[in-house]
Amino acid sequence: MKFNLLTATAILALGTSAALAQEVRVYNWSDYIDESLLEKFEQDTGIDLIYDVFDSNEVLETKMLAGGSGYDVVVPSGTFLQRQISAGAFQKLDMSKLPNHDNMWDVVEKRTDSYDPGNEYSINYMWGTTGIGANVGKVEEALGPDAPIGSLDLIFNPENMEKLADCGVFFLDAPTEMIPAALKYLGEDPDSQDPDVIAKTEPVLTAVRPYVKKFDNSEYINALANGEICVAFGWSGDILQARDRAAEADNGVEIVYNAPSEGALMWFDQMAIPVDAPNPDAAHAFLNFIMDPENMAAASNYVYYANGNKASQEFLVEDVIGDPAIYPDEATLENLYTTSPYDPKVQRVVTRLWTKVKSGT
Amino acid sequence: MRKSLVYLIPFLWLLALFFVPFLIVFKISLSDIALARPPYMPQLDLSEGLAGIRAFLSELDFENFVFLTTDSLYWKAYLSSLRIALIATFLTLLVGYPIAYGMARAPHHWRPTLLMLVILPFWTSFLIRVYAWMGILGQEGYLNQVLLWTGLISEPLSILNTNTAVYIGVVYTYLPFMILPIYAALERLDISLIEAAEDLGCSRTSAFWLVTFPLSRPGVTAGCFLVFIPTIGEFVIPSLLGGSKTLMIGKVLWEEFFSNRDWPVASAVAVVLLLILIVPIIFFQKNQQRQAEADA
């Protein structure tokens, strides 16, 4: 993946300039690709790939707004992408360099259009829902066989949370995910931009706060899989990865993922090219490589997230395409909602509320 | 002439790497948040010449500093950071002083080795060493395993993600900064002074408090400042070892920058933090000066 020592020596030996070797720097979410694809990309294109990971949209966004990040391909989620596009952080894609773009799925593009009008700046990488991962055995032990395992009641009702506290509950450390869910639980519009409505979530979150073991965006995969915690509110594919790791380890842990029956947040991670990318051509080559149906399918088969590539669907394993937790049926799709970016004033209210919930101050 | 040249080097260093960056941060703290790259207004446009600079200056104001006074979060975070830094400094002194004392009293030929052992941890990345503490202090960590195995406790202790873990992390990380100046002060200490005190009827304890400790005070002061100042603004240790209840200004700064994308307010928080730190730094300077004069 990194600069290969052998190629480096070979290039030096041949006396060619190393500057000729093209490279592409990709900044993606952690645990989000089949790593053998990275080697395949280098073999197919001869471009050196430097692959870095992050685990929060905020970190990515700050790099994009500061500029000069040095990355050629980055993967922000919908609302973040939308704001970064307005800030002038990305360049328009050159469709002539992306022949595989025809493989994309119109159903997904119709939805991502609201973040990136005309899908001019980005392609969909993966999409999914935010929901509840549960260790069935432990949750039923704590709450009985009627545990509301697929409902927001499980995580926002203090009575349930009090009983679950001992076996461990993780929440996402992302107010843009948690506050819409709490609004949905209250029966409010999850995409509300009204500070007074958003404020209603504070008592809900504060009431369950004492029973939350940690607010975190990446550790819950392992924690769920090895039985350290019994409930995580997190991203669908991460929880499905935990399910799979537990099954592989054969440690008696059974994880299920449920999109909350009240309705679930649907999100899209989009690949885009920063306006100051040092290697835009190589970046386009990477996007085109990712949009190849077999490559995209390999990534989805590995990370258990749905993708926005129609042609890849024939290469998906039954475990992925046939799982309604990943590719929801029509009825569930109806029940999914999306959110839009907060303006700076509302964002400040949201962050402040989140700090207050987490630290009590 | 040559002497002033020698002065010039640290002066230029401070100018380029402290004062200029500070002015940039200060300038951002006077601007307004904007959806742009970089995310604040106004931007200095030098192509317009003086008029551009004037227009730029007229748009700056202090409203971000006023904003900091409207929310209790900020002063609570400053106070909480001060408290954590004070306690951590005191704990580091408690642990560091006996170690430095032991080193200074060790046989001569041992001292280079002991000194080396104090510095040795710096050979590993700071981040990795803090991560290692996560493995030690966790619910299933080594510490709990050992304590459970010896039967000292029957339930695992929750140390990770609490302020206790932050104190452990700070004491561990900054211990060399406490040991080295104290050791330097104690090593210079003339043993015959203690013998004289004992000859004059001092017990060993009172000789320590009347002779040894006062003479090592410059080292203690230097060590305390070297621990206290970086701990106030510490971000990595509280975010890895602390819980969400650990309120420190470094974390607040992070949130202003990353979650709110409000660089102007984040810069204002940083400027105020610097002002809070300048007071102990000036004390430190004064103390060093007095020490230098006393030595001369």
**Tally of individual helices of chain B:** 13
CATH evolutionary superfamily of the largest domain in chain A: Periplasmic binding protein-like II
Task: Name the helix and strand elements of chain B from N-terminus to C-terminus, one letter apiece.
Answer: HEEHHHHHHHHHHHH
Tally of individual helices of chain A: 18
> Based on CA inertia axes, which overall geometry of chain A fits?
globular
Assign an overall shape of chain B: globular
Question: What's the CATH architecture name of the largest domain in chain A?
Answer: 3-Layer(aba) Sandwich
Strand order of the largest sheet of chain B: 1-2
Query: Which consecutive residue ranges of chain B, at least 5 long each, have pLDDT under 50?
Result: none
Q: How big a fraction of the residues of chain A is strand? A: 15-25%
- CATH names the topology of the largest domain in chain A as D-Maltodextrin-Binding Protein, domain 2
Q: Main β-sheet of chain B, in a few words? A: 2 strands, antiparallel
**Proportion of residues in helical segments of chain A:** 40-55%
Oligomer: heterodimer
Give the total of beta strands of chain B.
2
Number of strands of chain A: 11
Which secondary-structure class do the elements of chain B indicate? mainly alpha
CATH class wording of chain B:
Mainly Alpha
CATH fold-level name of chain B: MetI-like fold
Our measurement of the CA-to-CA distance between the termini of chain A, rounded to an integer number of angstroms, reads 45 Å
